[in-house]
Design goal:
The protein is α+β, with helices and mostly antiparallel strands. The chain is built from five helices and five strands. It has a five-stranded mixed beta sheet, sandwiched between helices. A hairpin with a 2-residue loop joins strand 2 and strand 3. The protein is globular. The structure holds coenzyme A.
Amino acid sequence: MTMHVRDFREADRRALTALWEACGLTRPWNDPNDDIDRAVAAREATILVGYCGDQLTGSVMAGHDGHRGWVYYLAVDPAHQGRGAGRELMEEAGLWLASRGAPKLELMVRDGNDKAAKFYESLGFERQQVTVYGKWLKAPSETSTRKAS
Ligand SMILES: CC(C)(COP(=O)(O)OP(=O)(O)OC[C@H]1O[C@@H](n2cnc3c(N)ncnc32)[C@H](O)[C@@H]1OP(=O)(O)O)[C@@H](O)C(=O)NCCC(=O)NCCS
């Protein structure tokens, strides 16, 4: 079945976070809803979702920081993997970023995610000679804008 790609809408939220869970992209210290909120609020970011019929089967988050384009949360429902959906979502993200002037697309792959690394290499991405450093600006437990209830 053909995948239809469009911008995220609020009605997609529950299915989108479930997709990210199913694809192993969430972490206990990071509420994915906060990531959705920040992408929706940012002018230079978007979330694209892919639908097969009425099922949300794919996603990609893209953002332009003024220097590079970045991609996060690329996910294809496990039952729909291996049919070109990941490639299509990356092409859509690349078009979105290129139309905003980003000269280069970069992304991070978690150590051990060899499947994703091979996927990106088959799309022409090259491993960069850099090490990524990070530092919390707020304690992880303080970053969530959603209070547990
Ligand atoms: C990575 C992911 C998005 C790929 O999606 P997909 O729809 O299965 O990929 P596609 O079918 O579009 O594959 C595109 C190309 O990558 C290749 N490819 C995909 N997975 C591969 C693998 N594990 N090893 C080698 N090549 C692979 C395909 O053969 C295909 O090549 P072709 O077009 O020349 O035939 C999907 O596996 C996924 O959601 N993984 C879990 C979440 C994740 O890890 N996301 C990335 C975070 S950095």
